[in-house]
Design goal:
The complex is a heterodimer. By secondary structure, chain A is mostly helical. Chain A contains eleven helices and no strands. The N and C termini of chain A lie far apart (51 Å). The relative contact order of chain A is 0.10. Chain B is of the alpha+beta class. Classes of the chains: A mainly alpha, B alpha+beta. Chains A and B meet through helix 9 of A and loops of B.
Chain lengths: 244, 165
């Protein structure tokens, strides 16, 4: 047997017979094709209905994840090094500025596309049965997107980062119940949500390392988990939303 | 006629198998909830360290003579102003009561301005413009036994407090 034929068959395990059954079978046994639905309704590909906003959000997330992974090579979450690392990325490392800006603008684009996606789902009433719970998962995804932006804001460790996170964590301190100074507060200043975020009572090394963990591991992990559920439910609800 | 069949059991009666099965199911659920609770509680507790490596809330800021009458002096790295008036000293926490940024003292205008959202405070810390809801915190200031001024950032003493030396 020709070696190339063997290689081809190891990749695509079915023959070339073209029939509807074989098309479905090919999709089922192939991982890449399996990510796409076996069948798409004609209305489902009408761009002006969904504007591809969900897909764009995924695209921007993949862009931030890939560029962010590369930025991690040069970044140290240390208060004495973080700012210098950021300047090195801007000025010393080839394509460093490009990657950093790509990460930043993809993140901005993700916030915008996720918000517009939510607006589209609302305006087309796509949150209705059987997609009600997927709207709930979607609000979780929106929250994760905002938290990723917030935690990433601190990492350059410049004045903007410092005071932005000062403002954000003071808001946490003034939140109801979980904040030490908010309404119905039950927790002290060394027990509340601000303390958990800061890892202390002021923004310092423990804060930077906590935000770094949340930004690189905790929140992306939660986001990917929620995304898996979100897409699964879209598929189970009969594919992407379309005019009825 | 010797053995009863399932038809002989009235529908209101519950079989032993079902009781035991149900009990086992709910007991298993309980165990899972307990294990998850213990793990979750452990992770939550993990976020609160037993010791904090932070600067002490009580610190000395030099001798009273080193401050001029009428001056506002920022203690760098401590986030505190030492103000000396004719009647005495007081210490103000350099933290805006709106959302926690550090205001800046403008000597020529005799006013504290917060760069984040534009709150303004008089020299005594009383807010008069912007979103700040209340005056800046005034901290406990005392004269230590070695003749140095000592600030306690943990104690808010109110606007009437002044230290006479």
């Amino acid at each position: 047997m020709n070696i190339f034929v063997q290689m081809w068959r190891s990749l695509f395990r079915t023959g070339v017979t073209d029939s509807p059954v074989h098309r479905v079978f090919r999709v089922v046994v192939n991982f890449i094709l399996h990510l796409h639905p076996a069948r798409v309704s004609k209305d489902g590909i009408k761009i002006t209905y969904t504007f591809c906003l969900g897909g764009l959000s995924v695209l921007f997330f993949i862009m931030t994840a890939l560029t962010g992974g590369l930025l991690m090579i040069y970044y140290t979450p240390d208060v004495d090094k973080a700012y210098a690392n950021m300047l090195d990325l801007e000025n010393v490392i080839p394509f460093g500025m490009f990657l950093r800006n790509l990460h930043r603008f993809a993140a901005h684009a993700m916030v915008i596309s996720v918000s517009l996606h939510m607006l589209r789902v609302f305006l087309t009433a796509s949150y209705k049965s059987p997609r009600e719970f997927n709207w709930v998962i979607g609000t979780g995804l929106l929250l994760m997107t905002f938290l990723l932006s917030f935690t990433g804001y601190l990492l350059p460790w410049d004045q903007l980062s410092y005071w932005a996170v000062t403002v954000g964590t003071t808001m946490a301190e003034n939140s109801p119940i979980v904040g030490a100074k908010g309404p119905f507060s039950v927790l002290g200043p060394e027990e509340d949500m601000r303390f958990i975020l800061l890892g202390g009572t002021s923004i310092d090394q423990p804060t930077l390392i906590r935000f770094y963990f949340a930004h690189c591991i905790g929140l992306p992990g939660a986001l990917v988990g929620l995304m898996a559920m979100h897409f699964w439910r879209v598929r189970k609800a009969g594919g992407i939303s379309r005019p009825l | 006629m010797l053995k009863p069949t399932t038809n002989d059991i009235p529908e209101t009666m519950v079989s032993r198998r079902r009781v035991l099965g149900g009990a086992l199911f709910w007991a298993s659920c309980g165990i899972v909830v307990v294990i998850l609770g213990v793990i979750g509680g452990g992770v939550l507790r993990f976020l609160y360290p037993r010791a904090l490596y932070e600067a002490s809330k009580i610190f000395k800021v030099g001798r009273p003579e080193s401050y001029k009458v009428g001056s506002v002096n920022l203690v760098t790295g401590r986030g505190v102003w030492i103000v000396r008036e004719q009647e005495g000293f007081y210490a103000i926490l350099a933290k805006c009561t709106h959302l926690g940024c550090q205001p800046i003292w403008y000597e020529d205008q005799q006013v504290f301005k917060c760069p984040c959202h534009g709150s303004r405070f008089h020299k005594d810390g009383v807010n008069f413009a912007g979103p700040a809801p209340r005056p800046l915190d005034r901290l406990y200031l005392s004269l230590a036994s070695d003749g140095h001024l000592e600030v306690d950032k943990g104690k808010d003493v109110g606007l009437d407090y002044k230290l006479k030396v």
